[in-house]
Specification:
Layout: H1 7-14, E1 27-32, E2 39-47, E3 50-59, H2 62-75, H3 80-84, H4 88-94, H5 104-122
Antiparallel strand pairs: 1-2, 2-3
């Protein structure tokens, strides 16, 4: 059974947004899905309570890469409060949708975001 992905999803895979590391990050979080082994790292630079820069590194299935790309792209310009209100559904939608068996990728992105936001908010 083949899975059909949206053009948005394919675009995130072909041209990931904000991939890489971030010098001078205020928060760097990494989470691993214990079931499949996918890993996602998210780095944020925060200025004045707003995400100035976001970068991600993903190791795993295409949906994890697409969710990391979508999340990092969405975060730039958001306040920490706006970022904290993002849901797994928001990440899934921004990535162009995910089949039911791949929803773990959005969950991984969401959990990584939560850890990064905790770090960012703990900074003086």
């Amino acid at each position: 059974m083949s899975v059909t992905y949206s053009d948005t999803f394919k675009e995130h895979l072909a041209n990931p947004r904000n991939a890489g590391t971030l010098e001078g990050a205020d928060a760097e979080a990494e989470q691993t899905n214990p079931v499949c082994g996918d890993r996602l790292r998210l780095a944020l630079r925060v200025r004045g309570g707003r995400v100035e820069s976001a970068r991600f590194l993903a190791y795993g299935c295409p949906p994890t890469i697409a969710c990391g790309s979508a999340l990092a792209g969405m975060l730039e310009g958001m306040t920490l409060e706006e970022a904290a209100r993002l849901t797994r559904s928001d990440i899934t939608e921004a990535a162009g949708g995910l089949p039911p068996r791949k929803q773990h990728a959005a969950a991984l992105a969401y959990e990584t975001l939560q850890e990064a936001l905790q770090q960012a908010e703990a900074r003086p």
